[in-house]
Amino acid sequence: MSSISLSKTNRRNLLIGAALFVAILWLLANAAAIGPWMERNGVVLRQALVTGLLIGGVYGLVAMGLTLIFGVLDIINFAHGALLTAGMYITFVLYDRYGVDPYVAILVTVPALFAIGVVVQRLIIHPARNAPTHNQLLLTLGLALFIENLLLVIFTGTPRSIRLTYGRGATDLGLLTVDFPLRLAGTTITMNRLAAFLFALLLTGLLYLLLQRTDLGKSIRATAQDKEGARLVGIDIARVNLVTFGLGAACVGAAAALVLPFLAVDPTAGNTFNITAFVIVVLGGMGSIPGALLAGFLVGLTQEMSVVFLPSSTKLIGVFAVFILALMFRPQGLLGRRVD
Amino acid sequence: MRDFGKVFVLLLVLLLTLAACVDQPAEEPTEAPAPAEPTEEPAEEPAEEPAEEPTEEPVEEPTEEPAEEPTEEPAEEPTEEATEEAAEEPAAEGEPILIGGIHPLTGALAGDGIQMDNAIQMAIAEINEAGGVLGGRQFEYLSSDSTGSAEVGQTEAERLIQEGAAALICCFQSAVTANVAAIAEREQVPLVIDVAVADAILQQGYTYTFRLQPNATVMGVRGADFLQAIAEATGAEINTIAYFYDGTTGFGDSVRQAFATRAAELGWEIVDEVGYDPFGVTDLTTEMTRVNGLAPDIVVVTGYYNDGLLVARNAEEVGLDVQAIYGVAQGTYDVPQFVTDAGDLAQCFFDSNYHWDASNAEAQAVRDSFQEQYGEEMRTAAVLAYESMRLVAAAVEEAGSADPVAIRDAISGISYEDHLLPYEGPIEFDEAGETIVAAPVVMQVQDGAIYQVWPPDVAEREPIMPCVSWQE
């Protein structure tokens, strides 16, 4: 029922489409034809494009975990944002107490969140697997509130943040020296956002490979497609569920370490990402991993573009407008498969 | 296995309910900023002798005895509980006077709520030690937890009044305060607001509620006035402003409107206004780029801690070309944690916000004493709570009685001189119950510490403008 992966042609079309989309926007931003308006707003438009892309990658990573869990377990994980917050605190403690670089901390947060995910699945979700969906939904919601308040008890409501000592000014990257923040046609690209974006893409690629190329990935996809069929060919569904929930949580573990260099954390920090992630998952097609990445970029770009075209206040207006429009024409989501 | 699942569902639903009770509504930025564990020493100490004890409560001779309550009973009918209560209230001379305090002692705001609660206890202990009031009567404190919820705050207020509280001090959050003020009015028990910023609380025609801190309008208007004065003093020229503010709660908008009105009178043009969701914003780079293109002289910010930090970081990243970044009731730029979190880029950030008077030696002594007793740096909210208690004590003395109505009358006519706040003149209340002289002060980060820089009579250092750390 869910399409975790794409066919080859779909994949190619998708890549071409996305590249075209970005290229058109960039050309638009530079087009002289639009005249004085562009002269005033060209830089803002380009900045919106850059920022939207960069944050979109992270959104995609977070949403991917959510969509993976949904695709396989048919569970909407409301605790996703809370898990992200937990990951951010783990990163913070590692940095604050032990001086561990947040990008190195990924090596800890990913396994840690994977473990938490497995435990949650084993102890909380699995026992309720035969319960009605709304019960399972409540379970994850309760889990979210539990995590949030646990963090509140441990860390209080005081916002915490970290400050990297590098990534400003001339930075030696081995092959070349780059002056951060990067200035590109009037736009600003900071090291930490660029790093978040690149790492997010890399991890997305790895996850995709894992799903496509390994036996484990194949059994996960098989389970997503048809639980009974998968069972019949000897796949251990319970184990697949465990691993899937772990992987989903591991995605936010990585995202948590990536956003901490530019976002402060408090016990409710993950909620922002939670709402965005839900929108992305539905927009991309529930259960579709490429859809999540695509919708992640789309939401990131839309959100920033609305800064250019709309009076501010809430960036999400544009996002929801696109969301509603998209669902009017493709109720199954951009890359979701129509349910017959 | 299935039973196990059921038990878990039950357990989680229980947890959920519990957690929902603890869930916090957002509070106003001016109330939010303080970190639970400030990592830095308070930078404001000019080496003043912190020796003197802040216990200059007028220890009056036992002239009158508080036996006259029954005759002073209010003519209007309060609710039954209060009437019953009032019947047993005329306390014998030895009996302590009960003061109720309502603050968030659990939940997200517990850090500040507990500080405020402690500050009131400290004030009471000092007053009692110095001989109490009315010739030897002691205060007794009824501490209560609002949990950050307006409904809980309201029932707690009712409970405290039933238990005989002669006055209330509360609440730290505007929503809670609004509910408690309604109860105080109905039950005819005076309420002193230590911290809560919304204008609306005192626009209901209440006669029993008084506020110590500057309200949203005062914050906005005085913030603009001070900015103008600082520009004049430093020779900077201001023509255009861009405003970043919390656009999702009434707080940011009301401060912004007050500021904008005053800005128009001062001849400034507001070239851009960026409203954002302080709890959802993850990036303001695009907005900052837009603002930078409009080349404002000053960027003004009103909001909470996280978003204020984000504004600072994004401004530096974009290389925002301004003369200053100036917070108005901003929860970030006057908090020592900001210097830790932002490092060098914090240099020169202004914040026009409520504060204790850092140039006052007695305020330092009180804060030292608090630090000694509770092991935490005393933050502004706690100083306001401490002052609220001392104000109530002064009013009781003035009233010559512990009757709530008499205390209320005394507060409304009081002229309270030796306070620890950077206000010009004694604390007196207007018709609505606002402190007439309530005003923010302007602080600025200089060399890794926060100093009061305006107005001049409470300034510890000269303001620096134009100045942002990323520009030479």
Task: Describe this entry's structure for a reader.
The complex is a heterodimer of chains A (340) and B (472). With 340 residues, chain A is mainly alpha-helical. Chain A is built from twelve helices and four strands; from the N terminus they run αααααββββααααααα. In chain A, strands 1-2 form a two-stranded antiparallel sheet. A two-stranded antiparallel sheet of chain A has the order 3-4. Chain B folds into two domains: 97-214 and 360-412, Response regulator (Rossmann fold); 217-353 and 441-471, 3-Layer(aba) Sandwich (Rossmann fold). Chain B has 13 helices and twelve strands. In chain B, the strands form two sheets. A seven-stranded mixed beta sheet of chain B has the order 7-6-8-9-10-11-12, sandwiched between helices. In chain B, strands 2-1-3-4-5 form a five-stranded parallel beta sheet, sandwiched between helices. The longest helix of chain B has 21 residues, at 2-22. Chain B starts with a helix and ends in an 18-residue tail after the last strand. Residues 18-91 of chain B have low confidence and may be disordered. The chains are: A mainly alpha (340), B alpha/beta (472). Chains A and B meet through helix 2, helix 5, helix 10 and helix 11 of A and helix 1, strand 7, helix 8, helix 9 and helix 10 of B.
